[in-house]
C-alpha cells in the first residue's frame, strides 16, 4: 500500500477566539477573532489606540485576557504567560525596545540567554547564531545600550528576542523613530531569516509603507476590531490606505 499524502492543513501558529481584553473594566478588544498562519509575516496596522499593542501583549501574557481563548498550534492555552510562550517558541520585541541603558550589549545578551532558558552549554553557539543573523551587533557589542543610536538599540532588542530561536516573533513597532532606510536595514535580515526558517511574524507598525514591503498579509484594526484583511499589494497606494484611516 502506498502512503497517502497528508492533506491535513498545518495548524495556525496563534489564534484567538472570542478574546476579550480591557483595562480597569473598560474593554479594548471585544469578541476578537484573529489568526496568525505558519510562515507568514502579518502586518497589523490601525489608528493609535486601536488595540494593536494590547493584542500583542495579551498573546504574550503581559496583559491578562478577561474572556475567550488563545490557541497555540491549534491548542487552547490554559495559562498565557511570557515564560510559557518563550518555551513554546514565541518571542516578543516590545514597544519602546525594553532595553536597560546602563548595560552593555554583551551584558544584555547574557541576561537574555539566561531569561530565555538557553542551557549553559548552548549559549556560545546561540550567540554566534544571532550574530550571524545581525552581524552589525558586533560593531557595538561592548558599548552601553543607552549610548547607542535608536536603530542600534532596536537591533539589540531584536537580537535579544532571537536568543530563544523563536518560530514565532511578535514585534511591536520596531521602526519607531527610524528613517525608512534604517527600517529596511533592520528588518530585511529578519525577513530573510523568516523566509529561510518558516518563522511566523506578527508585526505591528505605524510605518505602513515600509512594513508592507516585507509583509505577506495585512490586517487593519479600528477601535478594537478588525475592519479589513488584505494583501500588501491591495493597499499599496495611498488613496486606499487613507480610506481605512
Ligand atoms: N496599561 C493601560 N492602562 C489603561 N489603558 C490602557 C493601557 N494600555 C493601553 N490602554 C488603552 O487601551 C487602548 C488601546 O491601546 P493600545 O496601546 O493597545 O493601542 P495601539 O493600537 O497599540 O495604539 P498605539 O499605536 O498608540 O500604540 C487605548 O485606548 C489605550 O489608551
TrEMBL record:
A matching Pfam family: ABC_tran
Name of this protein: ABC transporter ATP-binding protein
Gene Ontology MF term list: ATP binding; ATP hydrolysis activity; branched-chain amino acid transmembrane transporter activity
PANTHER family: HIGH-AFFINITY BRANCHED-CHAIN AMINO ACID TRANSPORT ATP-BINDING PROTEIN LIVF (PTHR43820)
Assigned keywords, A-Z: Amino-acid transport, ATP-binding, Cell membrane, Membrane, Nucleotide-binding, Transport
Stored InterPro entries: AAA+_ATPase, ABC_transporter-like_ATP-bd, ABC_transporter-like_CS, BCAA_Transport_ATP-bd_LivF, P-loop_NTPase
Protein's UniProt keywords contain Nucleotide-binding: yes
Family per record: Belongs to the ABC transporter superfamily.
Domain ABC transporter residues, every copy: 14-244
Annotated organism of origin: Herbaspirillum robiniae
Any one biological process term the GO annotation gives: L-amino acid transport
Keyword Membrane annotated: yes
